[in-house]
Design goal:
This protein is of the alpha/beta class and 414 residues long. It contains 15 helices and 16 strands.
Length: 414
Amino acid sequence: MTLTDFILEHEADDTARLLLSRSRWPGIDVEKAVTAIECRKKLRTKLPEWYAIPGIEYPDRLAAEQCSSSETASYKASIVSRILGQCRLADLTGGLGVDSAAFSKVCESVLYNEMSPVRSSAAEKNFKLLGRNNVKVTSHIACEDSPIWNELEAFLPDIIFIDPARRSDTGSKVFLIEECSPDIIGLMGRMKGCCGKILIKLSPMADITMAVSRLENAGAKVREVHCVEAGGECKELLILCDNDWAGDYSLIVFRNGKSLDISGLTRHTPTCPASDEEIMSMKYIFEPGKALAKSGAFNAICQSRFVKAGEHTHLYLSALEPDPEDELLGFGKLFRIIEISALDKRSIALFGKKYPDSDVSARNIKMTSDGLRSRLRSRSGGKTHIFGFRADFSRKENGPDGTRNYIIAAERIS
């Protein structure tokens, strides 16, 4: 029995029991097989192209956990293809190799570099299994005096991709660019000397304004910033730097296979409802997607026949039929309102009885989504979504601070 045969035969088994019973298979590296089985479970929907090849080698679980999905890797490749067409790309932080494999589909040649020899060895084998024969594999640490710069000098890349590790030496998460490894700020001069364009992947938790400022202070010229959503979460923040760029950077959101340039919308002033009567007249509610929210341009929804529920309540209400041609509405969830009430004990009890199978969200109230769900005694899975939220009024006539809490039952329409 080969290792691949063992993986396929036991992929539904309890991996802990397999490890305890490893003596039954003296000719099999059971620990390696278990790593592959567990990684394949994680990647079945995340990377179906890789899952379809049982011989793919997984050097460690962390590489599989941190790798891009097929969707986000393909999006990065589309950015490179749009900007440069057929080109030569150097990936300085290769990891499992998912991004390099995606880049290789649109690039003439790819240099994959990974500081771990074990990971780079696995990647070299995997690229061949995937049919990605235009990828050269190296293993160097990306630092000031690394041999990687000699590799780049010989390779002559048109663009560098770098995805720094976002954990400290102690294993805790970090978010500032200079705390990541490798240090992009410290290496900016080196990278700019190799080629004119650099694509950087950062944590979705990174502050866009701060990241752009630090990069530009280090000599980079930021051309594009991308907020990438997948699976209902903002997964990546991508920053494209270009030595030849002279203008302001574009801000782009990506969701469900669509991208939209929303440059210029970040400073739009939100409009809040004037009164309780206006709230009660609302027919639709819009919840921005995670990429749109991350971009900071979610207030721009107010130019789309919507008012913002509150200054810090990122829900949007409209009494008018939404414009089907409005592209912004494709970057969130649109609901038709069924019922609105002031949020109190009576309305919670009533909504809980009328809509027992509902998803629940709490926004800017003294209650979490789980807390509100518990009080409603709601079971998820129905067609209804219940929102509990605080509204701020533009006319200060409803209470001393001009605010009031509401509960809405709504049905999603897009």
